[in-house]
Design goal:
The structure is a single chain. The chain has one domain. The protein is 52% helix and 12% strand. It has 6 helices and 4 strands. It has a 4-stranded mixed sheet, with helices on both faces. The longest helix is centred in the last third of the chain and has 30 residues, at 157-186. It is globular and about 40 Å long. It starts with a helix and ends with a helix.
Length: 187
């Protein structure tokens, strides 16, 4: 697994799932303008991942939004277990607070085993947040505010995504994942 392949698979997931299924109506513009930064972490433990998260949060906070509007910090070698990953989100939020970036940046979570509270593991709606690798999505609050202002019913996105996944079904999701792998291997 090379960093290039990890990025290719993640980029294919963004293109086919996040944008293709319109799970995030704001992602297409950022991706097409190449303002989405893909970073593959080589961290093998949570301390190293937290240190890199610290660096990436600082980088995003200081970067020109026209160059880097958002960052996907992909960490394929650590936090493979969703329970461990979910627990690390508290560490991630504490890191954001330590940098005094609350209200400026936020962190969204994606994981291959993502599971919403009160759902069964195989509930297809969990796929809305299932990425090829554990990933922390670092987002500017100002970008979210602009996107929400341009999308009048932003609060309906979550429910629309659940309905999209239910229509797609497990077989459709599996086929989409195969297409992402094929896209990445041909890149």
């Amino acid at each position: 697994m090379t960093p290039e392949l990890v990025i290719a698979e993640t980029r294919a997931w963004v293109d086919r799932a996040v944008i293709g299924l319109n799970l995030c109506p704001f992602a297409k513009a950022v991706q097409s303008k190449r303002q989405l930064r893909y970073v593959v972490s080589e961290a093998t433990d949570t301390d190293a991942l937290q240190a890199q998260l610290f660096d990436e949060l600082e980088h995003l906070a200081q970067a020109d939004p026209d160059v880097t509007d958002t960052t996907l910090l992909i960490h394929p070698l650590v936090l493979q277990d969703f329970g461990d990953y979910n627990a690390f989100l508290d560490v991630a939020d504490a890191t954001l607070a330590a940098l005094k970036l609350d209200g400026i940046l936020q962190i969204a979570s994606f994981h291959p085993q993502y599971q919403f509270a009160d759902t069964e593991f195989d509930d297809i709606t969990n796929a809305t947040n299932r990425s090829p690798y554990p990933t922390l999505h670092l987002i500017r609050e100002s970008s979210i505010d602009r996107a929400v202002a341009a999308f009048p019913e932003a609060e309906s996105i979550f429910e629309t995504n659940l309905a999209t996944m239910e229509r797609l079904g497990p077989e459709g999701w599996a086929a989409l994942q195969r297409q992402c792998k094929d896209d990445a291997n041909s890149a």
